[in-house]
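Lab notebook page, bench 4
Experiment: in silico fold of construct C2
Operator: M.H.
Input chain length: 286 residues
Purpose: comparison with the prior construct
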Amino acid sequence: MKRSDFRFFHRLRVRWAEIDMQKIVFNGHYLTYIDTAVTAYWGRLALPYETAFQLLGGELYVKKATLEYHASAVMDDDLSIGMKCSKLGKSSMVFEAGIFRGDKLLISGELIYVFADPQTQTSKSIPEALRHIMLIFEAGQSVVDLKMGAWADMKTVAAALRHEVFVEEQEVPVELELDELDDQALHAVVFNKLGQSVATGRLLQAQTHVSKIGRMAVSKPLRSGNLGRKLVEAFIEVARQRGDHEVILHAQCSAEGFYRKLGFKSHGDVFDDAGIDHIEMTLKLH
């Protein structure tokens, strides 16, 4: 088993609480690491586990888990957990896992899951929609679709996700979340292959040759899956095509690092917007 066998990795840093009396990671924690990576795997497939599997009409239950120990992890190791689905049966699926420190394989594992009715825990056939998503992901294809349009066309799907993120999660007053600028903006929504809206944002013409990105919202379980990047890059391309010279945005300070990685630069002082610290950021296009 090599790193090149996997296209998906989840990174973890070994914590003090996971070390045993031998000053190595206690053997049972490796299964927790792998299970954490499986959860991240569903996120990379743009499937918020709880709502997605409700739509699919079942849950996944572990039938068998095996680990093989090759070497030990120690305190502060930066681990990469590779995950891939290696087999899809009628009602079961097999995941292979590799825990690496750099290129060195520490632990290899295998998990067998069964798709089952959550009420009776009796097996049922893996839905074709789930089978399709997993197959195209492992083949390197996109598991999301991005659509753009006016507020009248996108409101139903975009507003629900914005309400979930801004009003319910961040406690922004609902009267501040929706405004008259929505009718003037170009809206984008990212959909997963089940048709769920999982990320959204809007693009305004702030002034001549200046675009403004706003109302960026990504479903909480999926925030490590590059959906925000996909939205921002799509908006930047729109701005370029219409001849804008600059893209601006008011970033929540907690997201400043994310936008910096996309080329935006911060300027000015931190300011309060709806009870959340923000900072203005810009990206020059020419």
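Observations: The mean pLDDT is 94. The first helix runs from residue 29 to 44.
Next step: discuss at group meeting.
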